[in-house]
Every structure is written in structure tokens, then in C-alpha cells.
């Protein structure tokens, strides 16, 4: 691959890296795993980049590759052995009181989202990214109606996790 | 307020905490992928090579084995056709695998990507199945020819009593069965481990469509 292509790719990825970080935040529990998944997403993006035509936005294209890497291609490497969790108290949600302060609220929310399965997390991710149901359905390969129904179920499930 | 709306407020701050520079990203492009597609590719190549070696090593390395085979099967039409058939099948599998790998695209929808990977895995599965069946068929044909064309063995067998003959047959059948079972379990374990997550996610996507 030529230098020019590499340079344009790195510039674009640096600009849109937030997307990959957000995917990693949802699918991993610690920093090593986060970095490992980010590394794999980068490789997959780079491998697919020569076919990126630019007729869609780089960010839109990146959503798909990053999510597909997280839910399908990623295989935990040896590097991602469990170290310190992001929050230190992952999955202990039921024993904690649902605090009103925003920080505590967010921590509990992230923990709740981590309890969802991979596909549910993908829907949550696209929802948080303000994608409409047409785009959600196209990215995952399900119908628009089913994406909507599933999203409503996830919201209910989250409520149940948060208020057992 | 909707829980996800609260999350949304914090959502876009993620990258700020982990922000990488251009200099950090460059070396990442040189690293090797550890994706399941790559692993699947290595396994399928290993399988192709393994079965080709299993079929050809005894023939290539042992003079007496080659001589014996040439003697017994050399002029047999069925054996020659089987050899040609096995080469055609190997070429066909290599072609199908290549085509299948080429169709795996990370930019497809998640469901389509999973289906492409599972289709590739299925081709490898059929290849293994084909080899196991061929191994079984070869043993049966081998015994048939050995009984009819190898005077040494035919002589030994002719001294067997009925009981010995039955025991001998049972041992042969059990040995073949055990061999096939071990190989089958081995593959189940490898693919089960490798594709566990993919299978689970694919099942979840399929469930959404019901």
C-alpha cells in the first residue's frame, strides 16, 4: 500500500477514532481489552480501506467495520487477560444503590449496558449515535420493524436491570 | 427520563479519554490481525495440507508400500479413477474455499458477514467429511483388494476360524469407527471454540427475524 493511502487513512482514523473507542467501551471491560479491540478494529479498517470509495461518509463506513469487528471477527488475544476493570466494580450492580448523582448514575448505567448481549449492545451503540432505524437495520442486517421492536425491549430490559 | 438519554449525554466524551495521536496510529497498521477469519483460514489450509499429506506420505516415503500398491492396484481401472477423482475434489475444495474467503467482507451487514464466515466453515466441514468418508471407503476397498490380490494375507485369513474372522472384522470396524470419532470430536472442539461467539450472535440475529 502506498504512503499516500496510508497517510490519508491515518488522518481519517485519527479524526474519527472516537467511534472505535466507543465501540471498545461497550464491548470490553478493561484497558488492555479496550486497546486490543481498538487494535483489531484499526487493522480491519486498514485492510478494507482500499475498497472505501468515499461515496459514503468515512464515519458511516467506520461504524459498520468497527461493530462487525467487535461482534463477529474479534477474538480475544492473550494480551487481554483481565486486569483492572474500568469501574473496578463491574457487574455488582444489584448490591449498589441507584444514586442520583450523575456520575454514579452513569457508572451504574454503563454496568447495566455491559450486561446486555453483543447484539443488544450493537443496537444500543447505534441508538446512542443517533442513527435512525433504517440505518440500524441495514448495519445489522435485520428488518427495520424488528430493530425498533428489539430497541424497545432493550430499554425495558435496562429498566429491569436498574430496578430489579 | 429514559436511561439511554442519560447515557447519551456522556457518550461522546469517550474518545477524549483515550485519544491517540497520528504517531500512535501508524505502528498499529503494522500489527497482525487476530480475527477469527484469519484463524479459520489457517485451520482450513492446515486441513487441506494435512489430508493431502495423509494420502500421499505413505506412498511417497515407503518403497515397499508403493511397490505393493502399484502391484495390487496398478492396473485397476477403479483405483485410477478414484485417484483422479480425489485430485479433482481437492482442486474443487481449494477453489470453493478461495471464493468463499474472498466473499467475506467486513463492510457487509453483520448478518451477511456472519453468514459468509459460516458458509466458509461449512465448506471446510464438508471437506473433512469427504475425507472421513473416503478414508472409510478406502479401507473397505483396501481390504477387498488385499483379500483378493494379496496371496500372503489371503493365506493367513483362510486359516482363520469363523470366530476369529468375526473378531477380526469387529476389531477393524471398531478401529475405523474410533478413528473417525476422534477426528470428528477434534474438529467439533476446534470450531466450537473458535466460532462459539459468532454462532451465539448469529442465533440472536436470527431470533430477531422470527
**What's the Cα radius of gyration of chain A?**
17 Å
Q: Count up the domains of chain B.
A: 1
Count of discrete alpha- or pi-helical segments spanning 4 or more residues of chain A:
7
On the 0-100 scale, what is the average pLDDT of chain A?
85
Largest sheet properties of chain A: none
Write down how many β-strands of chain A occur, each being a DSSP E stretch of 2 or more residues: 0
Task: Tell me the span between the first and last alpha carbons of chain A.
Answer: 53 Å
Give the low-confidence spans of chain B.
none
> What are the low-pLDDT stretches of chain A, counting only 5+ consecutive residues below 50?
79-84, 88-96
User: What gyration radius of chain B follows from the Cα positions, in whole Å?
Assistant: 26 Å
Percent of residues in helices of chain A: 55-70%
Summarize the helix and strand pattern of chain B as letters. Answer: HHHHHHHHH
Largest interface: A-B, 64 and 50 residues
Secondary structure class of chain B reads mainly alpha
**What percent of the residues of chain B sit in helical stretches (DSSP H or I)?**
over 70%
- What percentage of amino acids of chain A are in beta strands? under 5%
Shape of chain B: elongated
Please describe the topology of this protein:
The complex is a heterodimer of chains A (164) and B (210).
Chain A (H helix, E strand, L loop, with lengths): L2 H25 L3 H18 L9 H16 L28 H13 L3 H11 L4 H8 L3 H19 L2
Helix pairs in contact in A: 1-2, 1-3, 1-5, 2-3, 3-5, 5-6, 5-7, 6-7
Chain B lengths: L2 H9 L2 H5 L3 H9 L5 H26 L1 H11 L3 H27 L6 H40 L1 H8 L3 H48 L1
3D architecture notes:
The complex is a heterodimer of chains A (164) and B (210). Chain A is mainly α. Chain A has helices at 3-27, 31-48, 58-73, 102-114, 118-128, 133-140, 144-162. Chain A has seven helices and no strands. The longest helix of chain A is centred in the first third of the chain and has 25 residues, at 3-27. Residues 79-84 and 88-96 of chain A have low confidence and may be disordered. Chain B is elongated. Chain B contains nine helices and no strands. Chain B has helices spanning 3-11, 14-18, 22-30, 36-61, 63-73, 77-103, 110-149, 151-158, 162-209. Chain B has one domain.
